């Protein structure tokens, strides 16, 4: 044995069942049997850890101290993690007018006001899952096989078939997005993110050392992608294209033809797509919303979804990744990578997994239709009311739960930007809309249309009153 080896030590656990660390030859320390009874002739009774030098002598291991005073600092990942919405909202001076009750049009949670409860069949499915007592333990990190098959059956179609092995269950759609970015990207890579777009993409990517490149959506074209701008951003380090359809924050729904144009760009540049489809099927009558995977067999797609929005249960934290890879471009490596990453938190809620079959099979179409009808009605109320307010330019949505409103800042010289505008709207009128700077898109604000109808009407009245107070004609208009 070399002198270099003689200086090594090994940690040996004694628990009556043997030494739990291999000796140098795998059978014991100093050539003796690793049976937990004797090391170098010394009896070691009871459980515990003992440091054993390769020559058999026992001694307490002592590592050199790295520092002489306390110095505990957050990691680079923690320091690099920033939610743009929180960064903006936390810095706002949000003090509502005490004479007017607060109307919060800023929170993307359909349950806040209690006017959009989930269906009784959804609740019953969860109760049945609890009562069965089959789902109280750990599930596999990717989800129960039966539950994954239920999701696969629900979303499978002839154009994009799915099986259980193509599904990974996650703790909400946000974890699904996290896993997809993590498996496709390395530090130094870049991803393409819609602008305006959901702020979580940037939060996750930047924390991992991944550059975010924003591609423009065009409000004058109902928020379609500026395809030329998108393509100009692609380089050799671009590892993923994120497409959100229907859109948060825009409420837009891409046509089949436009989705095909996006897929054509991805195919040309061999770029996998992360399709955030959490609002799939939450589209207004007259619109259709095919999945991206149903329109292409050549582009590999990771589609992210969940229960949160369509079934109105965001707190249940159930999401999924659908792996569409009919040409085997991802191969086993990406699938195995997703499995490994899923093992970091040991999977999604087992109780909700047990309820998926009942939720998917028993929820009546009338529940979905009622939700969509309400969202469309509220969107029309908001759009029609604000369309006649000087200085505002709302864009009518086609789905999801949101409506974006442009602010002609030239007509509101008292305010520096959309953050200043929305902050004063709270102070004066107790109406809280989210400034679109939180979505990297200044001079707009986002309205959530899930509030009760009477509250939506009242909010629009107050916004009109606010704009009339601060609106100023341009100097050229005064000359006329």
Automatic annotation (TrEMBL):
EC number: 2.6.1.5
Residues with the N6-(pyridoxal phosphate)lysine modification: 309
GO biological process: L-phenylalanine catabolic process; L-tyrosine catabolic process
Domain of life: Eukaryota
Assembly notes: Homodimer.
Cofactor (UniProt): pyridoxal 5'-phosphate
A Pfam family matched in the record: Aminotran_1_2
Source organism per UniProt: Salarias fasciatus
The protein's annotated pathway: Amino-acid degradation; L-phenylalanine degradation; acetoacetate and fumarate from L-phenylalanine: step 2/6
Role description: Transaminase involved in tyrosine breakdown. Converts tyrosine to p-hydroxyphenylpyruvate.
Alphabetical list of InterPro entries matching this protein: Aminotransferase_I/II_large (IPR004839), NHTrfase_class1_PyrdxlP-BS (IPR004838), PyrdxlP-dep_Trfase (IPR015424), PyrdxlP-dep_Trfase_major (IPR015421), PyrdxlP-dep_Trfase_small (IPR015422), TyrNic_aminoTrfase (IPR005958), Tyrosine_aminoTrfase (IPR005957)
Record keywords, A-Z: Aminotransferase, Phenylalanine catabolism, Pyridoxal phosphate, Transferase, Tyrosine catabolism
Catalytic activity line of the entry: L-tyrosine + 2-oxoglutarate = 3-(4-hydroxyphenyl)pyruvate + L-glutamate
Annotated spans, Disordered: 15-47
CDD domains per UniProt: AAT_like
Gene: tat
Gene3D superfamilies (alphabetical): Aspartate Aminotransferase, domain 1, Type I PLP-dependent aspartate aminotransferase-like (Major domain)
Annotated protein name in UniProt: Tyrosine aminotransferase
Tagged with keyword Transferase: yes
Domain Aminotransferase class I/classII large: 101-463
Any GO molecular function: pyridoxal phosphate binding
Transferase keyword on record: yes
Biased composition (Polar residues): 30-43
Family the UniProt entry places it in: Belongs to the class-I pyridoxal-phosphate-dependent aminotransferase family.
């Amino acid at each position: 044995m070399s002198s270099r080896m003689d200086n090594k030590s090994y940690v040996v656990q004694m628990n009556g069942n043997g030494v739990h660390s291999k000796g140098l030859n795998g059978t014991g320390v100093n050539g003796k049997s690793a049976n937990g009874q004797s090391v170098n002739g010394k009896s070691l009774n009871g459980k515990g850890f003992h440091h054993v030098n390769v020559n058999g002598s026992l001694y307490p291991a002592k590592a050199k101290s790295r520092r002489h005073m306390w110095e505990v600092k957050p990691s680079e990942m923690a320091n690099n993690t920033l939610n743009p919405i929180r960064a903006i909202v936390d810095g706002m001076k949000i003090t509502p007018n005490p004479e007017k009750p607060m109307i919060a049009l800023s929170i993307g949670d359909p349950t806040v006001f209690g006017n959009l409860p989930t269906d009784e069949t959804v609740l019953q499915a969860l109760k049945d899952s609890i009562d069965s007592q089959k789902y109280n333990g750990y599930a596999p990190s990717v989800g129960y096989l039966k539950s994954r098959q239920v999701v696969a059956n629900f979303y499978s179609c002839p154009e994009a078939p799915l099986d259980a092995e193509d599904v990974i269950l996650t703790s909400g759609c946000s974890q699904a997005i996290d896993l997809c970015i993590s498996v496709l990207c390395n530090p130094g890579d870049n991803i393409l993110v819609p602008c305006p777009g959901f702020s979580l993409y940037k939060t996750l990517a930047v924390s991992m050392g991944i550059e975010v490149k924003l591609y423009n959506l065009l409000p004058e074209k109902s928020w379609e992608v500026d395809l030329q701008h998108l393509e100009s951003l692609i380089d050799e380090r671009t590892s993923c294209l994120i497409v959100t359809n229907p859109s948060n924050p825009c409420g837009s729904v891409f046509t089949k033809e436009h989705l095909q144009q996006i897929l054509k760009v991805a195919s040309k540049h061999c770029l996998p797509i992360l399709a955030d489809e959490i609002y799939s099927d939450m589209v207004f009558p007259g619109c259709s919303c095919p999945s991206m995977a149903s329109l292409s067999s050549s582009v590999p797609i990771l589609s992210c979804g969940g229960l949160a929005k369509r079934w109105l249960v965001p707190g249940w934290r159930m999401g999924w990744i659908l792996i569409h890879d009919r040409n085997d471009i991802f191969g086993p490596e990406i699938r195995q990578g997703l499995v490994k990453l899923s093992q970091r938190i040991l999977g999604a809620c087992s109780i909700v997994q047990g309820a998926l079959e009942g939720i998917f099979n028993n929820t009546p179409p009338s529940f979905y239709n009622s939700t969509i009808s309400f969202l469309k009605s509220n969107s029309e109320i908001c759009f029609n009311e604000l369309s006649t307010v000087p200085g505002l330019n709302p864009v009518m949505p086609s789905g999801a739960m949101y409506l974006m409103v442009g602010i002609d800042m030239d007509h509101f010289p008292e305010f520096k930007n959309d953050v200043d505008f929305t902050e004063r709207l709270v102070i004066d009128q107790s109406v809280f809309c989210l400034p679109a700077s939180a979505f990297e898109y200044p001079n707009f604000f986002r309205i959530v249309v899930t509030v009760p109808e009477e509250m939506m009407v009242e909010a629009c009245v107050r916004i009109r009153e606010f704009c009339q107070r601060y609106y100023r004609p341009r100097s050229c208009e005064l000359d006329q």
